[in-house]
């Protein structure tokens, strides 16, 4: 790829007081990908996205968007980035029409046809006041504002967290449709893993301010396996594969491993795992001894 | 961005305009009426020089009759302050409820957002104060002609200091709001700061802004005309202007040319013979603009510094 990546973080850190919200975070978001940024609350997802759009300044390391520093060159970054903050803040006293006018006034690349089409599809009227809309509708209006900017990179911070399942589905469909139409890069953060697989092709797991896992979802699904077998020590397996999580009952041992090639040992029953299990396994390791191994997973 | 900024403070600006309209609705009819009474009774001739006895009655009743206008404008000094609080609110609300994240991630710099919003607030606040000044100066003209403009009810609504206080309140509100990011508490604290600051200036600091004039004269002789001045202190003294101790009842206060006699000495200073003197410490009426200028410089200066501090803090510190 000759163009710089949509988003690139190098040893990125952000500290609030003595608390590191994000620490030593290195990751690349290739242009054209749809990345899910997953982690529990307080993992640093919001911090990372706000750093990307220049709302906050890194304490250490660097972040660049299409090769530009968002803080140093806001006007090289902002017009190319659509950002929907957590809880999708909107001026509540504005009508939808005024909100779109706001977008037109503040964005040179504004496409009113896109905005109008989305408002029509949502069954909303330009005269409705934003404050009277439901949470799902407000999220959609905020997304409309971001999409009509015709961004090359769309950053969504917990866009569906406050929505009911139906509104969640509709919102993600809107994102998916915009992606297929324009080929834009998307990074969306979430602590809900369900639904993400349908929309995203890459996964970043963040916990306690560190990246735990980064990679294409398809590859991650192929690499991770659940092994069950008679109770035993995990050490033998750990010599070849990376053990993410182990649990033992009286007779049985269950390991979730990131397999280094095929698992040949016949004493293990090998199962495929789904995305949610992988995410939970990695989030579980943050408090376990296996955390020491986590940075190795990052340095892929 | 100007349209967006205006749209955000449109309601607040209209409320401020409505406050002015209510004030004008009362002051204009009364002002017209007062001006006609003033010219009809030929009171203009009574102003200035020591009131001739013939004027005393009609002047007294005129002052009494239109004292309501004094009261009205004394209270109206609060209008620019309330307007400035209202006009600070859109800026604070954006920081409070997180909508700044929306504006700062459109294709404009946060610097432009801050400058536009604060400039609109400042301009609107100054305009409200300016309207009050115009209204007060016009409506109070006969009263000012008689009493001068050094008393607080005229001084606080005319000249240029109302603009200064509007900027002061705005500055305090946006500075507290930028630090605290809670709209309503910030506005309440700003209002309290305004009330305290204003009381401090009216009752203590203003008299000391310029070094006052001190005049001593023979108590039974004729002294200076203190009618339209800002009298800071007046007392029985010796020839050199040192206060004579032992006169219970304190200094004799002059107000609107009337000597209030708390003690018999005040009423009849000549009873003590020719060696008793009166001393007055005051700001002469001719210093109106000079005083206003100094007070404006201090109060508006603090206000604008606070606005700039809020802008800087918002630009550098808020994420």
Task: Describe the protein's architecture and organization.
The complex is a heterodimer of chains A (300) and B (319). Chain A is α/β, with parallel strands linked by helices and 300 residues long. Chain A folds into two domains: 7-208, Rossmann fold (3-Layer(aba) Sandwich), CATH 3.40.50; 218-298, 2-Layer Sandwich (Alpha-Beta Plaits), CATH 3.30.70. Chain A has eleven helices and 13 strands. In chain A, helix 4 runs antiparallel to helix 5 and helix 5 (135-147) packs parallel to helix 6. The longest helix of chain A is centred in the middle third of the chain and has 18 residues, at 165-182. Chain A is elongated and about 65 Å long. Chain A starts with 6 loop residues before the first strand and ends with a helix. Chain B is mainly alpha-helical. Helices cover 64% and strands 8% of the residues of chain B. Chain B is built from twelve helices and five strands. Chain B has helices at residues 2-40, 53-65, 67-76, 78-97, 100-103, 110-139, 141-147, 152-155, 161-180, 183-205, 264-267, 288-317, and strands at 213-218, 230-237, 254-255, 258-259, 277-283. In chain B, strand 3 (254-255) and strand 4 (258-259) form a beta hairpin. In chain B, helix 9 packs parallel to helix 12 (288-317). Chain B starts with a helix and ends with a helix.
Task: Give me the secondary-structure topology.
The complex is a heterodimer of chains A (300) and B (319).
Chain A (H helix, E strand, L loop, with lengths): L6 E10 L2 E11 L4 E5 L6 H8 L7 E6 L8 H4 L3 E4 L11 H11 L5 H10 L13 H13 L5 E4 L8 H18 L2 E6 L5 H4 L2 E6 L2 E7 H7 E7 L4 H4 L3 E7 L3 E7 L10 E4 L2 H11 L8 H5 L2
Parallel strand pairs in A: 3-7, 3-8, 5-6, 6-7
Antiparallel strand pairs in A: 1-2, 1-4, 8-9, 10-12, 10-13, 11-12
Chain B lengths: L1 H39 L12 H13 L1 H10 L1 H20 L2 H4 L6 H30 L1 H7 L4 H4 L5 H20 L2 H23 L7 E6 L11 E8 L16 E2 L2 E2 L4 H4 L9 E7 L4 H30 L2
Antiparallel strand pairs in B: 1-5, 2-5, 3-4
